[in-house]
Amino acid sequence: MSALAQPTGSPAAWPDTYGDEAKPRMGFFTDTSVCIGCKACEVACKEWNLIPEDGRLWTGESYDNTSELGANTWRHVAFVEQRKPLKLDGGGETAELDAEPLRWLMESDVCKHCTHAGCLDVCPTGSLFRTEYGTVVVQEDICNGCGYCVPACPFGVLDKRHLPRKADDAPLSLPLLGKKEDGRVWKCTLCYDRLKGGHEPACAKACPTDSIQFGPLDELRERADQRLEKLRAERWNGAQLYGRDPDDGVGGFGAFFLLLDEPEVYGLPPDPVVPTAHVAEMWRNTAIAAAAMLVGVAAAFVGGRS
Amino acid sequence: MSHHHDGSITAVGTQMDSYYGRPIVKEPVWQPEIPFYFFFGGLAGASGVLHAFAGLVGNKTLARRTLLIGAAADIVGPILLVSDLGRPERALNMFRVFKVTSPMSVGSWVLLVSGSASNTAAALELMGKLKPVKVAAEFVSALAGPPLATYTGTLIADTSIPVWHEARHELPWLFGASAASSAGAAAAIAVPVDEAGPARRLAIGASVVTLGLKEVMQRRLGFVGEVYEKEEAGSYGRISKLCTGAGAALLALAGKRSRAAAVAGGSLVLAGEVALRWSVFRAGFQSARDPRYVVVPQRERKAARG
Ligand code: SF4
Ligand code: SF4
């Protein structure tokens, strides 16, 4: 009952369960104000994590042909072209450009590694788990592809992989069991393997502008606060932190952002809440509905036993 | 709805920004097995309860047939669920853990108990052996029935799909009523009219409740609920209304006298309940596809908080 036991702050039962192996909570601070849209993160992620190619398509949506996070995309760079000034009135050097305002927003999106993660809460196999770093990871040798985590995530991060299974992971021969596609869900692991080896995640390593910063979450939050203060002082239009607040509907993100417009402009929900926040109320209601059904069936016998 | 080049979406009464009109939450990856499972799981659960009461009042034919219907549905249910998995060979991973935050986890255990109990009871009934064990199994099956019939509503409510999550108050009730109606209708078909009184009354009463609850749910959902008027959710909804309504009327008018009318009426009700599950199922996909259903209510929530 993660969302209930500890309404905010840190993830439920973490890090106590790790005892001596507990680590500080690690995360990302993605500062979109310095992103240049080079997609080095997307590429580094695919390379390091051996994520298969899933087809190419020209969308006509600015420089974005990746479109969304999913089973085969764990970093996604969004491109937004806007007729809005980069800076508010009195913002100095760009003021003369504001006669014909145009700005290009770029944002490298990723799994938020939520403090209260809907995906993890609903996973019936225990495949999704909280690591010693406080991150949220799918164990691919456990996932049975039930698909529950997919609509549970408030951000649409996870998806089922429909690509063929690998040769060493052959389908069984029974008709019911003989599925040929991978069938499991995949998402960002915050490079769990690299963290174990003392390295930073591949995307952060590859990012040439430090738009993706990796580190202990406490430090990242401090750094983000300073950055926001600076941008506000320089009168950047729309500068705001997204997912930094441990009091939000998912208890804050482990991977949070500095945005230059409202979240929905980047395809992000403006006020995400973990669905399991309401789980106690839902079970109470279910219990009453179940009891009512019992009474209802009994009532059908009121008019006689046959 | 029209998409503008700057990513904003305009629809009647709602104006918001979006990322090229793309969805925010992911569509479920569940296949047609799932709405059919909702139906069969409900039929199994409610038949177990109907069986128990029929046994209590000494209506032997009704008791025996509802036991067999419930046991059969309890076999079909798990087959559908396993077949929907991306990794069917890992179906038993459902029993690695028990998690209250995951209605799918809770439901898997309920289904295991219900299926074992109803099939043990049915087997012993057919063999005419071990009466005390059979009675115990029937008792367990009757207790597992209401949770089995209602948890599926809570399963889909415990997601980030707006039209499901916002209907968390109604869904377990709606699914419970639909289950009761299905069990009554199936029994009204299988049992001679003289002994089918309680089954008929249950089918008629629960049908009325089901139709009423769906109406209430759609109204209360407001903007988010408009998907029920559109596309597939709308078509299935209309089929459900028509079939359930006509079937219940037929059972009420002629079900007492004519077995043919009972069979026709019961079949119509069953078809209506299948269509109802499909309407709710498809509504979830439609709700996920349009980012307005995510953004507009979240914006309102944020504004209300100030
Ligand atoms: S963003 Fe989605 S996938 Fe990532 S931890 Fe949160 S709920 Fe899970
Ligand atoms: S698809 Fe896999 S990871 Fe997702 S909820 Fe099901 S078992 Fe867990």
Write up this protein.
The complex is a heterodimer of chains A (306) and B (306). By secondary structure, chain A is α+β, with helices and mostly antiparallel strands. Chain A folds into two domains: 16-273, Alpha-Beta Plaits (2-Layer Sandwich), CATH 3.30.70; 276-306. Helix content of chain A is 23%, strand content 15%. Chain A has a four-stranded mixed sheet with strand order 8-1-10-9. A two-stranded antiparallel ribbon of chain A has the order 2-3. A two-stranded antiparallel ribbon of chain A has the order 4-5. In chain A, strand 4 and strand 5 form a beta hairpin. The longest helix of chain A is centred in the C-terminal third of the chain and has 21 residues, at 279-299. Chain B has one domain (27-305): Formate dehydrogenase/DMSO reductase domain (Formate dehydrogenase/DMSO reductase fold, Up-down Bundle). Chain B has ten helices and three strands, in the order βββαααααααααα. Chain B has helices at residues 33-57, 60-84, 103-127, 131-157, 162-165, 171-190, 197-221, 231-254, 259-289, 292-305; strands at residues 2-3, 8-11, 14-17. In chain B, helix 1 packs antiparallel against helix 2 (60-84), helix 2 crosses helix 3 and helix 7 packs antiparallel against helix 8. Residues 1-5 of chain B have low confidence and may be disordered. The chains are: A alpha+beta (306), B mainly alpha (306). The site of one iron/sulfur cluster has 13 residues of chain A, from loops.
